[in-house]
Amino acid sequence: MKSLILVLLMLHMTNQIKYDTNCSDCPPLNCMMYICFCDADWDICNVSIFKDEVLNMTCTLRDKVKGFNSSDLHITYGTGIEVSNNEMMVIDSSSLRLTKHMHTMEHVGLTNFVCYHGEKIMEKTDVRVDYRPSAIKNFSCTIFNWDEGMLCTWNLGVKYNNSRAISVSLLMKSGDITGQYNPVCDRDQNNNLICNHTWNHTDRVIFDRSYLNFTVNVTNKCCTEVPVSKQTENLIIIQKENVRPDKVHNVTVSSVTSTCVSLNWDHLKRNRSKLFTVRTTTNDSNWDDAQVEETPDTNITLCELKPYTRYNFSFETRPGKDVGYPSDLVYISAITDIDKPSRPPEFVNSGYQVIDEDCINNARKITVLWKAIAEEYQNGPFNGYYISASSPDNGLLKDYHVNSTGLDIQHQSIDIPCDQPITITMKSLGKAGYSNTSTIIIPKANYISQTEIAGIVIGVVIFVVICITIAVCLASKTLKLLQMAIGSHNLYIFYTDQMYGVISRCDMSSDLVKMRVFYGDVWSLCWLDLDLVSDS
Question: pTM score, two decimals?
Answer without folding.
Answer: 0.65
